[in-house]
Each structure stands twice: as C-alpha cells, then as structure tokens.
Description:
Elements: H1 6-17, H2 26-49, H3 54-65, E1 71-72, H4 74-81, H5 85-97, E2 101-105, E3 113-117, H6 119-139, H7 145-164
Helix pairs in contact: 2-6, 3-5, 3-6, 4-5
Amino acid sequence: MEDPDFVGTVIAQWRAERPDLDVAPLGVVARLHRLAGRLTEELVAVYARHGLGEGEFDVLAALRRAGAPYELAPGVLAASTMVSSGAVTKRVDRCEQQGWVTRRVDRQDGRGRVVALTDAGRALIDRAFTEHVANEHRLLAGFSAEERAQLAGLLEQWGRALESGD
C-alpha cells in the first residue's frame, strides 16, 4: 500500500489525537483546498506567459465569451467575473492601459458605460485561452472522460448546495 499523502497523514494524526471526532471530511475539503492552491499556480503560469494576471485574464475572457460585439457594462462584467465593482474597475484600468479594452458611453443609455474588447485584446485572449484549455486538459490527463464527468458533476452538485445554503 502507498504511503498516505499529506492530508492522509494529517487525518491519521487527528484520529489519534481526537478519536471522538469524525475527521473524514478532511479527506475531501483539505485535499480540495490544497489542490486549489496548486491549480492556481498552474493556471497563473499560463496567464503570465501571455503577459496577463488572473484579473486581466478574467476580464478579457468574460468579454470574449459574451460574443460579438464583445462588450459588457461594468456591473455585468463584475458579476461575470465574480468580483466587486471596485475590483473590476482596477482590472479594467490595467487592461485599458495595455490597449486590450476600451471604455465608452453606452449607446443605449447615455448615463452608463461599456467596456469593450479591442482587436488586440481579442487576439490575446484567443491565444491565452487556447493555451489555458490545453493546460486544463493536461491537468486532468490522469482521469478518464467518465471520471472527469463524474467529478465535474459532483463538484457542481456540491457548489449548488453551498450556494443555496443547504
């Protein structure tokens, strides 16, 4: 039998010290927590090769997947990237300074603003996203298609339950 991983060792230690507690959830939660950090490192390395940070990648990706004309109101962009309006403003500022996005008055509502992907921004996110997807395939290569689908389904189920407060 293989030696336990780090979390397996921690679980064994807690079972020895606190046999009155069921520490089995650590097997999932602690491993996911550790994996999240490691996955972030793997993803950020790809973004960096394209001159992007996580925030810039998120902004450009949200605009690109919105479809033509590749523009969103700042509030929609904030919701789409799951950050505050203040955080999205800083991210958009950085993207605008690089020439990847523009800001303009909303043609439908003169009081509102719109953030739009430039041709340079679109070309950049297309290159970065292509490498990002290849990287994610690499990261999941140890799983069969069936296992990936099962894992995705379980994580979706868990995420929905946490979001609904169940």
